[in-house]
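Weekly structure sync - notes
Attendees: PM, LS, DV (DV joined late)
Agenda: review two folding runs queued last week.

Item 1: First target. Sequence and structure tokens pasted below for the record.
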Amino acid sequence: MAALASLSLGLWFVFSLIGLLVFAVLTEPFNLKPQWRVRLRWVIVGGLIVFGYIVLRRILAIAPPGLF
């Protein structure tokens, strides 16, 4: 992203969250649930909340001022 001059904190966060979700799905065990997987769920939930905030800010930046 830095090579394309499109580096921003929001884009970096979104791509990191996507990578975390892919990692979580690909490494999910079948039989047992280790303790770190339970804590990982809270990290993912927090990431999704921040992602929703980023999306909401983008929508409000694009929308006309009197719409909301």
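Item 2: Second target, run right after the first with the same settings.
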Amino acid sequence: MGPRARIASFLCRDEHERQWMLDMHHRLLPITRISGVISLATAAAIIPWASPLGFLPIVVGSIAMGVATAR
């Protein structure tokens, strides 16, 4: 069993559960993207009162989430 198969078995017990998880992922993807944009906009709006470095983890996290979601 390869690393990919071990990860798949860790996330889902069987093929039916995997299909359900993928279906839910596709259904929730628009909401996830909207919430990410709202988070970025909120963080950008508070930059004048907070350190711009506080914006950096949000940007890095958003990029990481986007890459992980795409894969």
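Discussion on item 2: Residues 15-45 form the longest helix (31 residues).
Action: LS to circulate a short write-up before next sync.
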